[in-house]
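Posting this for the archive.
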Amino acid sequence: MNTKATRKPLSSNAKREVFANLARIGTALSSATRIEFLELLAQAERSVEQLANLTGTTVANTSQHLQKLRQAGLIVGRKQGLYVFYRLAGDEVVALLSAVSRVGETYVADVERILRLYFAQKDELEAVPAKELLERARKGLVTVLDVRPAEEYAAGHVPGAINIPIHELKKRLKELPRRREVVAYCRGPYCLMSYDAVSLLRGKGMKARRLEAGLPEWRLAGFPVEQT
């Protein structure tokens, strides 16, 4: 059989058609609220109502934003009873967000300015790289502290990490060994919970630093993740 004779010719507009569909991803990322939804869904599966509560957005607006993300192929949903739960379509979405962040930090002056004036002021010490944390944790040299909400910790966390949500940390300091360095982490590089945790711990005379990024980036790098 002559396969060449049955093969359909490529459209001269094929490249433009691909670019047009890729542009849907750019459109989906053109909202700060939708990017925040992606950050939250990178931690754990959530319903429309949960996302609305976490971000202070109405349920109606949340649904609209999620539909745009779904149409762009960035998230998938499943129905359970009366509720629809969403999650990221895959780790590639985390990689996409990381790439956008790197481009913004390098080439967008306002992003660099915010990082320099705000984030750098909150913690001038260099963050702990993921590989270094894994090695030190395996040797028992550090205490890994997950300051995200309990449901996010349950969905996935750094092996051996202790979960103390940031709003409970001040009351539960006794659960942390005082003679061992604490490395805190949360949702990602712009999540302030780990910064606040480190500040609190240092204020109590404890040695503390934060992980370079968050749990999604840790998973993306291929490091082990535990679930409870």
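The radius of gyration is 21 Å. The chain is about 50% helix and 15% strand.
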